[in-house]
Specification:
- With 150 residues, the protein is an alpha+beta fold.
- It has a single domain, classed as 3-Layer(aba) Sandwich (Aminopeptidase).
- Helices cover 31% and strands 29% of the residues.
- It is built from 5 helices and 7 strands.
- It is globular.
- 29% of the residues are buried.
- The mean pLDDT is 90.
Amino acid sequence: MIRKARISDVKDIHSLLTYFAGKQMLLARSLSDLYENVRDFFVIEEEGHVIGAGALHIIWEDLAEIRSLAIKEEFQRAGLGSGIISFALAEAREYGIKKVFTLTYQPEFFKKNGFNIIDKSQLPHKIWADCIRCPRFPNCDEIAMMMELN
């Protein structure tokens, strides 16, 4: 079941993201950051446990980012990550967002979900406010990808 995250999900989301950050597959998020942005998140729940999460973070009037997308390893390859993307894109459309981007280490997955690789210079300077706080700044090796919505 995919649904909007609740405050009670934050510690599970943090644990999931920390696990994959430790494998260098995504960027870590602090508990503080997750509580502040819990409304951005969707979770997949099975038998009362969070097995996947992802967020749609609005950047500007026509731009949002899909971030912090992770599915527990034993549940991967079952379409759950694509499900979170679908929910996030539907919400972006509800808000009238025209473009959704991601910074990822998994470009093939996002390509299968309709995203195209772009040069990071195509992203507005506003997104770099988050990047400055990243431990990998200024040597970011994530791949920028974008989808334009109809």
